[in-house]
């Protein structure tokens, strides 16, 4: 008992105060960027990219990385002969709008500068057949959805219950979500906690490609979650299928199955990148 | 007993045993033709060799290429007898897989892989399934470890194991149509068959007061998906059936026809927390085929990363066991140390999951130089904290009461099912790939393999604790003993239709990859068997007779990977 107390006193606080304080600049690898000014458009990187994430238009002399697909393997940096590819330690990459992740020529900069407040999420609801039309009154989708979004944020702003769903991951992303509960990240300090059942959840944190065998379970979990609800796609797999795209057993991202509010790129995204994405979904970061 | 296994096999069954190299040349004439065009001289000398080869010649150059693997082609009718014979000698079936070789000899080949662990040798029986009837004789009644493989082969290739005690679907659930087999070469990887609606049948236990508890696939904790069907009478569990493969992504099919380079990144993503063990197994297989000798510095670096992965994984498991027993303080201690282990990873390569470290022929860059002192300091810090924590945990009698004699995996069952890794070692199996099939720099380093016999949670926990200490010591040895020099011997080109095994000891145990190359530096077939595949059935046995609330605890003490099993 005495030893236990000694340890408790020895380590009173390990928690990193992210996002209030930014992480101490570290050597970790984050977003890979291509400098169009240095690039000679040889196309080697696009040829070798294991995730076919590099979009290249030689004639237009334009190149960019689709961060929804990128698995952050830094192979392109290794391959590039002219040093145009650089890996930064940027990790706050979550976005609302998937297009922002693959906006071809814009990808290098657009990601961080998107004005978040005036982005509407309405369109993501069009993609799904999950919302039952008869249940909606005679107003337009847009109005309902934008009202709904506002309410969601008001309701969830200070306290949020999350249910995690692994829809076919390699378990990397799940371990990083797990790490949100460790003493370093301690998500509960932000009023966010994980719950055991989707029926108690406000948000689904989904990893994995949405495999054929998990498809039904994911949709059912979504339906079991009471409205209003948010869905966050964690990792390259959930955003686009990642390296497992286009096989007989996978979907290319979970937005083929359920509407997604925020996409967090990475393979896997660091725990802080996931925190950033969660906070973005409930508008607590701008 | 096993020392003359090769000779016995040859005389008893009148069959010829080949080394891996000879075998690939006789079995895949297409490859020889191709080589013929490119380099006639090498071929001629190879052929010469194969005629005069005797086994003692091979033993001399044991370290070379694939010379510790012996192949034997047997007719379908004899397979069962041979397999039983080898098993009786105490050599477990460690892998069984099929390969669509219709391009070469109009048929599907089935490979049965046995490990002669005392001698660091693999014996592979190859047979051809009848292309008309698409049937193979099941060996599961005699070799229980074969059961899962045979069901897998049935789902992926459509080869029916005749006489299998319960040959229901494994990989596919009710949504997959009958008669579609994705690993056949004529199935395109992107094909998406229509959804079928077949009901899944579970093992049924009937009797007064017996009821079923279905759990999953979406669980209460933050873990991967799987469905568990418990049959219980009151509290104790009578039977547990695990339906897995919810995260089946078709990795083996995806890898076919892809470049060797890309497949390395796929291998890294087989199971997130075993990234390094899997990528290393893959690299070793390709390096064997290419005949590349990895530079010494790379071999030491690989040990460092492999042990770091083991340490991280074990610390997480130990924390998990404590958490599930309601021992929050200890959980936080282990999680704290796990966090420190992650910062060692960040320090080394900037990635928490040790991805983009391995490269065919070595490692990507010199990750260690200049950081030695810092790394050793971090590691010693973890070591002393671990010592303190383990002392506290072990003196907590309430906690020890809970884990002692809970979730016992009987040694007999462990042997029959080929339980591997800490799960097997806790049940009396004395086996570690790092000792039996030494790789990387392990032959030059000192370490002990834990030995336990009781097979309960406590033994698995102690195994993991001891292995964590060994891992830290190994890392420090590797850092200190690391010679200077280059870290990669690039591999330019690999011959088509050659094959090799890559074996590593993943944090969860024996990890086997079998790789067969295709034309133009691609893969023809990639068979992956992670330790989880062997240990899932063992877990289902270990929970029997325990009460339902102990299931999470027992499950955590194995901490198996769903992704690594489902592929
Ligand atoms: S870092 Fe991203 S873009 Fe670059 S090669 Fe890897 S997956 Fe492709
Ligand atoms: S995004 Fe990467 S880490 Fe996450 S599940 Fe997919 S492969 Fe694993």
Protein described:
- Chain A is built from 10 helices and 9 strands.
- Chain A is of the alpha/beta class.
- A 5-stranded parallel beta sheet of chain A has the order 6-5-7-8-9, with helices on both faces. Chain A has a two-stranded antiparallel ribbon with strand order 1-4.
- The model of chain B is unreliable at 31-66 (pLDDT under 50).
- Residues 32, 49-51, 53-54, 65, 70-76 of chain A line the site of one iron/sulfur cluster.
- One iron/sulfur cluster binds at residues 71, 169-170, 172-173, 207-208, 235-237, 242, 267-268 of chain A.
Descriptive keywords:
heterodimer, A: 286 residues, alpha/beta, Alpha-Beta Plaits, Rossmann fold, 2 domains, five-stranded parallel sheet, two-stranded antiparallel sheet, 9 strands, 13% strand, B: 567 residues, alpha+beta, Beta Polymerase, domain 2, Cytochrome-c3 Hydrogenase, chain B, 3 domains, five-stranded mixed sheet, 22 helices, 44% helix, globular, binds iron/sulfur cluster, quinone binding (chain B)
Task: Give the arrangement of secondary structure elements.
The complex is a heterodimer of chains A (286) and B (567).
Chain A: H1 2-10, E1 32-34, H2 44-48, E2 54-57, E3 62-65, H3 75-79, E4 85-87, H4 98-101, H5 107-113, H6 141-156, E5 160-166, H7 172-178, E6 192-194, E7 203-207, H8 215-224, E8 230-234, H9 235-240, E9 262-264, H10 271-281
Parallel strand pairs in A: 5-6, 5-7, 7-8, 8-9
Antiparallel strand pairs in A: 1-4, 2-3
Chain B: H1 5-13, E1 17-19, H2 20-27, H3 29-38, H4 40-52, H5 55-60, E2 69-73, H6 79-88, E3 93-100, H7 102-105, E4 108-116, E5 121-129, E6 135-137, H8 146-157, E7 160-162, E8 210-215, E9 227-233, E10 237-243, H9 251-255, H10 260-268, H11 275-290, H12 296-324, H13 328-349, E11 358-359, E12 362-363, H14 372-394, H15 397-403, H16 411-416, H17 421-425, H18 433-436, H19 457-481, E13 499-506, E14 509-517, E15 523-529, H20 531-542, H21 551-558, H22 562-566
Parallel strand pairs in B: 2-5, 6-7
Antiparallel strand pairs in B: 1-2, 3-4, 4-5, 8-9, 9-10, 11-12, 13-14, 14-15
Helix pairs in contact in B: 3-4, 10-11, 11-12, 12-13, 12-19, 12-21, 13-14, 14-19
């Amino acid at each position: 008992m005495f030893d236990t107390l000694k340890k408790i006193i020895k380590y009173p606080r390990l928690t990193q105060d992210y996002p209030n304080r930014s992480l101490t600049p570290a050597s970790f690898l984050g977003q890979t960027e291509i400098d169009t000014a240095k690039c000679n458009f040889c196309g080697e990187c696009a040829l070798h990219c294991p995730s076919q994430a590099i979009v290249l238009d030689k004639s237009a002399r334009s190149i960019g990385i689709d961060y929804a697909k990128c698995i952050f393997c830094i192979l392109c940096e290794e391959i590039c002969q002219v040093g145009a590819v650089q890996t930064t330690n940027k990790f706050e990459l979550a976005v609302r709008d998937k297009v922002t992740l693959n906006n071809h020529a814009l990808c290098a900069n657009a990601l961080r500068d998107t004005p978040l407040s005036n982005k509407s999420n309405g369109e993501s609801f069009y993609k799904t057949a999950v919302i039952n039309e008869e249940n909606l009154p005679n107003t337009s989708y847009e109005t309902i959805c934008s009202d709904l979004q506002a309410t969601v944020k008001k309701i969830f702003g200070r306290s949020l219950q999350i249910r995690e769903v692994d829809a076919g991951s390699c378990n990397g992303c799940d371990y990083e979500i797990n790490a949100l509960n460790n003493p370093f990240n301690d998500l509960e300090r932000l009023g966010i906690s994980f719950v055991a059942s989707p029926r108690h959840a406000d948000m689904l944190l989904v990893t994995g490609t949405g495999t054929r065998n998990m498809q039904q379970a994911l949709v059912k979990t979504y339906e079991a979650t009471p409205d209003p609800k948010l869905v966050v796609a964690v990792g390259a797999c959930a955003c686009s299928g990642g390296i497992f795209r286009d096989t007989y057993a996978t979907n290319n991202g979970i937005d083929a199955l359920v509407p997604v509010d925020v996409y967090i790129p990475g393979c896997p995204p660091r725990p802080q990148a996931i925190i950033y994405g969660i906070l973005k979904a409930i508008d607590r970061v701008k | 007993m096993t020392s003359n296994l090769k000779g016995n096999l040859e005389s008893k069954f009148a069959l010829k045993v080949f080394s891996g190299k000879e075998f690939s040349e006789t079995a895949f004439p297409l490859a020889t033709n191709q080589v013929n065009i490119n380099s006639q001289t090498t071929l001629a000398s190879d052929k010469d060799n194969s005629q005069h080869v005797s086994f003692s010649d091979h033993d001399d150059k044991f370290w070379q290429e694939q010379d510790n693997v012996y192949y034997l082609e047997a007719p379908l009718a004899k397979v069962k007898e041979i397999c039983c014979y080898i098993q009786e000698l105490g050599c477990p079936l460690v892998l069984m897989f099929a390969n669509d070789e219709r391009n070469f000899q109009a048929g599907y080949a089935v490979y049965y892989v046995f490990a002669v662990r005392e001698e660091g040798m693999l014996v592979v029986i190859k047979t051809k399934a009848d292309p008309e009837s698409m049937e193979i004789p099941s060996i599961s009644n005699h070799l229980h470890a074969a059961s899962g493989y045979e069901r897998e082969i049935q789902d992926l290739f459509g080869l029916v194991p005749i006489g299998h005690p319960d040959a229901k679907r494994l990989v596919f659930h009710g949504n997959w149509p009958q008669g579609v087999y994705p690993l056949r070469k004529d199935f395109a990887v992107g094909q998406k068959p229509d959804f079928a609606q077949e009901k899944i049948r579970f093992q049924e236990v009937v009797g007064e007061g017996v009821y079923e508890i279905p759990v999953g696939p979406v669980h209460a904790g933050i873990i991967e998906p799987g469905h568990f069907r418990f049959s219980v009478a009151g509290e104790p569990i009578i039977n547990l059936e695990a339906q897995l493969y919810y995260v089946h992504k078709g990795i083996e099919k995806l890898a076919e026809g892809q470049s060797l380079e890309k497949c390395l990144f796929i291998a890294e993503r087989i199971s997130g927390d075993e990234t390094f063990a899997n990528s290393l197994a893959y690299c070793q297989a390709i390096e064997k085929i290419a005949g590349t000798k990895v530079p010494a510095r790379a071999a030491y670096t690989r040990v460092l990363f492999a042990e770091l992965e083991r340490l991280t994984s074990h610390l997480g498991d130990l924390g998990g066991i404590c958490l599930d027993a309601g021992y929050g303080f200890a959980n936080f201690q282990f999680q704290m140390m796990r966090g420190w282990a992650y910062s060692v990873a960040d320090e080394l390569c900037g990635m928490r999951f040790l991805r983009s470290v391995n490269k065919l022929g070595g490692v990507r860059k010199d990750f260690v130089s200049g950081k030695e002192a810092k790394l050793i300091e971090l590691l010693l810090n973890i070591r002393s904290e671990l010592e303190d924590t383990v002392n506290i945990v072990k003196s907590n009698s309430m906690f020890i009461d809970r884990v002692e004699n809970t979730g016992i995996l009987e040694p007999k069952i462990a042997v029959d099912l080929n339980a591997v890794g800490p799960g097997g070692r806790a049940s009396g199996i004395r086996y570690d790939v790092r000792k039996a099939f030494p790789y990387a720099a392990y032959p030059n380093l000192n370490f002990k393999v834990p030995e336990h016999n009781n097979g309960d949670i406590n033994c698995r926990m102690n195994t993991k604790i001891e292995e964590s200490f060994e891992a830290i010591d190994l890392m420090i040895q590797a850092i200190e003993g690391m010679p200077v020099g280059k870290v990669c011997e690039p591999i330019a080109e690999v011959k088509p239709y050659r094959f090799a095994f890559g074996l590593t000891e993943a944090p969860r145990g024996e990890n086997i990859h079998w790789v067969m190359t295709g034309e133009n530096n691609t893969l023809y077939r990639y068979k992956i068997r992670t330790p989880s595949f062997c240990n899932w059935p063992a877990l289902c046995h270990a929970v029997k007779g325990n009460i339902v609330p102990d299931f999470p605890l027992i499950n955590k003490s194995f901490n198996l990977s769903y992704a690594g099993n489902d592929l």
